[in-house]
Structure formats: structure tokens, C-alpha cells
Amino acid sequence: MPATVGVLHRWNLALEVADELGIPVMCHLDFPPPSRMEVVSRLRSGDILTHCFRPFPNAPARLRDRTVREEILAARERGVIFDIGHGMGSFGFATAEVMLESGFQPECISSDVHVLSIDGPAHNQLVTLSKFLAMGMPLVDVIAASTTGPADAIRRPDLGTLKVGTPGDATVLRLESGEFQFLDAEGQVREGDSQLVPEGMVIAGCWHDP
């Protein structure tokens, strides 16, 4: 449910329904209203906040003193799950760098690819993951945030794993070395020395070329 509807009683109704069904809600941060505080303060343990590294306004970090905002830290403390949701306007390197410097890695990295972002700046999931490599996030954590992290967030322990008895799905990737430029939603560029590229997929135990 987009928080940008600007009518918080609808947001409260969504939370009430989720409580009755025992499921999490997923909400995004966009331009206010509502404010970041109004959105984040309502999220419960297991709820998901996407566009979580968005630039100003409603950014989760203060660029001036390079700190994470208190309500964001409190949300993580009570178990809110943070998802990137890059998209067209919802990911900024400056914000992300402050968050990562502060030890605040996202549980989920997603691309939010749609008609306005597929040709940039998001492009696809692997470009989005590669941006986090360029910012120094460890490869093992980047992969986890695209596999086990999202599976845990949606309460599907059978996904994002190669355990016996789970679906035989996997993506085979290659870490390519070189000189690469990555663009965020504000037009800011960061350079990286590696990027993830697809080699193929295994779906239900069958190989598929990319």
C-alpha cells in the first residue's frame, strides 16, 4: 500500500487487516505527506519498508552530519525489514553511503524495475546489486539480500535456498572485473571495479540460458 495516498486512516486500516490475518505489510517512502516519521512509526516487527535508501525528502539519513535518523534506528530495533526498491526516484548513493558507513545494511535489495526505470537508473536486479558492491558491501551480503533476505521477509523459507526438498531454482552469476559506472536516481555516478552478470538459470531443476 503506497503511503503517498496521504490519508493515514487507510494506512491504519491496512495494519488492522494485517493484524487480523497475521501477515506483514509493505510500505514505501515517497515525497511527503505523509512524513517519514508518520510512516515508519506505524510499522511493526516483520513489516517491510521499501525505498528505504531514498534521497531527500524523507531520506533515512542526515547527510550533513552523516547519521542515521533516530526513527529509522528504532524501527530496525523493533524488527522492521528494510528493502531498497531502487526504481526511478527512490535510491540515492549519498544516502546509501551514509547508511552503509553506519553499519546499516538492507535486509533486501530489489530493483523495482518498471517502464520508467528499466532503461535507467535501475536497469535490472544485477545492476542494482552491483551498485552495492561498488559501495563496498561484501559480496556474500549482497547475494543474501537478493535471496535469503527476501525469502525470510515474505515468510517463504523454501525459497532462496538449495536445501533438499525445496524448489530447484538458482541463478548462476559471474563476477566480471573491469571499470564500470553506476547511476542513482539523482544522476550521481559512482565507479566500480566489478559487476554481476548472468550465466544462466536453473528453474525446477532445468537449465535455461540467459
List keywords for this structure.
TIM Barrel, three-stranded parallel β-sheet, 210 residues, single chain, three-stranded antiparallel β-sheet, globular, alpha/beta
What would a concise description of this structure say?
The chain has 210 residues and is α/β, with parallel strands linked by helices.
How would you portray this structure in words?
There is one protein chain. With 210 residues, the chain is α/β, with parallel strands linked by helices. It has one domain: TIM Barrel, CATH 3.20.20.140. The chain is 28% helix and 21% strand. The chain has seven helices and eight strands, in the order αβαβββαβααααβββ. A three-stranded parallel β-sheet has the order 1-2-5, with no helix packed on it. Strand 6 and strand 7 form a beta hairpin. It starts with 7 loop residues before the first helix and ends with a strand.
What kind of sheet is the major sheet?
3 strands, parallel
Number of strands: 8
Which ranges are low-confidence, i.e. pLDDT below 50, for 5 or more consecutive residues?
none
* CATH fold type: TIM Barrel
Spatial separation of the terminal alpha carbons: 33 Å
Give the name of the CATH architecture: Alpha-Beta Barrel
Average residue pLDDT: 94
CATH C-level label: Alpha Beta
Per the principal axes of the C-alpha atoms, what is the gross shape? globular
H/E element string? Answer: HEHEEEHEHHHHEEE
Backbone CA Rg: 17 Å
Blueprint of the fold:
Layout: H1 8-21, E1 26-28, H2 36-40, E2 48-50, E3 61-62, E4 67-68, H3 70-77, E5 81-82, H4 93-101, H5 125-134, H6 139-144, H7 148-153, E6 170-183, E7 189-203, E8 206-208
Parallel strand pairs: 1-2, 2-5
Antiparallel strand pairs: 3-4, 6-7, 7-8
